[in-house]
């Protein structure tokens, strides 16, 4: 038997761009993806703290160092520029297996 555990969490990061007419879904700065252990095209759960929307999509790379967090395609209708997001990834593991999730907090004080 396998269970699903949280693998990574990018908390309170802000949307920098959105485009409905674009192929793709959630663009994340490549450096942030590396720090959070998120693979390109990996499924991500996105929680919009600003408007309470939740959706599941996949991650695509934005240029390293750009700090871009972009909502693309239909996902662009789930948020606006400057909305705070929580991005979550999960992994399937044996129930006894320990997972040490990566947590990055971008909350602006």
Q: Can you describe what's shown?
A:
The chain has 109 residues and is mostly beta strands. The protein has one domain (3-95): Barwin-like endoglucanases, CATH 2.40.40. Helix content is 6%, strand content 48%. It contains one helix and eight strands, in the order E-E-E-H-E-E-E-E-E. It has one helix at 30-36, and strands at residues 3-14, 17-19, 26-29, 43-48, 54-62, 69-72, 84-93, 102-105. The protein has an eight-stranded mixed beta sheet with strand order 2-6-3-5-4-7-1-8. The model has no long low-confidence stretch (mean pLDDT 96).
Furnish the topology, listing elements before pairings.
Layout: E1 3-14, E2 17-19, E3 26-29, H1 30-36, E4 43-48, E5 54-62, E6 69-72, E7 84-93, E8 102-105
Parallel strand pairs: 1-8, 2-6, 3-5
Antiparallel strand pairs: 1-7, 3-6, 4-5, 4-7
Task: Name its key features.
109 residues, mainly beta, Barwin-like endoglucanases, eight-stranded mixed sheet, 1 helix, 8 strands
What is the H/E string? EEEHEEEEE
Spatial sequence of strands, sheet with the most strands: 2-6-3-5-4-7-1-8
Query: How many domains?
Result: 1
User: What fraction of residues sit in β-strands?
Assistant: over 45%
CATH architecture classification: Beta Barrel
Judged by helices, strands and strand pairing, the structural class is mainly beta
At the third CATH level, what is the topology name? Barwin-like endoglucanases
Helix content: under 10%
C-alpha-based Rg, rounded: 14 Å
Spatial gap, N to C terminus: 42 Å
Give the uncertain stretches in residue-range form: none
- Mean of pLDDT: 96
Per CATH, the class reads Mainly Beta
Largest sheet: 8 strands, mixed
Number of helix segments? Answer: 1
Number of strand elements:
8
């Amino acid at each position: 038997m396998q269970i699903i555990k949280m693998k990574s969490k990018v908390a309170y990061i802000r949307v920098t761009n959105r485009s409905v007419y674009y192929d793709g879904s959630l663009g994340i700065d490549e450096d942030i993806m590396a720090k959070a252990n998120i693979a390109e095209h990996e499924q991500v759960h996105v929680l919009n703290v600003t408007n309470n929307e939740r959706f599941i999509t996949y991650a695509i790379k934005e240029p390293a160092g750009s700090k871009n967090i972009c909502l693309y395609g239909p996902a662009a209708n789930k948020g606006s520029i400057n909305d705070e997001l929580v991005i979550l990834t999960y992994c399937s593991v044996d129930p006894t297996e320990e997972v040490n999730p990566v947590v990055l907090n971008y909350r602006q004080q």
